[in-house]
Amino acid sequence: MRITVGFPLRRRLGVLMLMVLLWVVACQPQSPEAPPPAADASSSEPVSLLGTGATFPLFLYQRWFSDYSQQHPEVQVNYQPTGSAVGIQQVMAGTTDFGASDVPMTDEEMAQVEQGVVLLPVTAGSVAIVYNLPGVASGLKLPRSVYPQIFLGEITNWAGPQIAAANPELTLPDLEITVVHRSDGSGTTATLTEHLSAVDAQWRETVGAGLSVNWPTGVGIKSNAGVSAQVQQAQGTIGYVEYSYAKQLAMPVAALENRAGDYVAPSAEAAAVVINNTTLPEDLRITLPDPEMAGAYPIVTYSWILAFQRYADAAKATALRRVLAWSLTEGQAVSEDLGYVPLPESVTQRVMAALETITAD
């Protein structure tokens, strides 16, 4: 299969931006290159926290942890965007101070963590369907009977009748469709595949949902940043990334037909329709595979911090509680600008209560 690659000026700028993003993600240090600034007599002792996991909330976590450390230089947070599957695995292994995942841990996974686990939904967002089509910079609509069939490899040409019927105002190119999907264990993949399983019986019966699935077609790439780069470079591609990546990189996104029959493009506002009208259960674990609200974007998820319930180091327990309390309050103010959903006050209060259950041995 041949993938046509074009590089007009605007696309070269986009690719350059992606190269910078990938370099930043790849070069995150395992520990701060310089020691944290010396604390004055009234400050706490320096504390370093290591986190790892989901790439979905990367832009928000980078902003939160950087801003917090500027205000509280005695605390340094090093977050590694390794994917939700690795975040869960490292919490189970006890090799990180906290993990992060776009899917909540299961009872079986939590039972294997000797120190106990506290699941904290600290943000929410959506999974955008991104594409690269010459002459179609915006306005693409995909019916819910169509986009699962694209990801199944059943619809293979952009000018096919199923896509054309939903887009009479667009001039769609006679171009082969190339699906770009994640190759690593991914909460973004889990969110998408849960949705596809909810709306398409063939997908549900042949592929299913999970952090990793056996994709029936396409090219596998690691991380949200990697999928973004591949789609930006190769014409005819379609992929899926957390909306903040599409927003930051100005990538074309498809408007999807939701359960109410509306075509809705991804945005923080359209995801908030879901989050603001959904009640979290007592254990703060929920999936939202096919929301029914009018005006709702259909692929939405919370994203969780996976904290230990008991820490051997009291300073780390205290620092993590303070960082996350700040993120749940002051930090929420930057969410929407980055493409995420600020938590409703009712959710914030419940997560703050759960945060207080974190203790030290």
UniProtKB/TrEMBL annotation:
Belongs to the PstS family. GO terms for cellular component: ATP-binding cassette (ABC) transporter complex. Residues 41-317 form the PBP domain. Gene3D superfamilies: Periplasmic binding protein-like II. GO terms for molecular function: phosphate ion binding. GO terms for biological process: phosphate ion transmembrane transport. This is Phosphate-binding protein. Keywords: Phosphate transport, Transport.
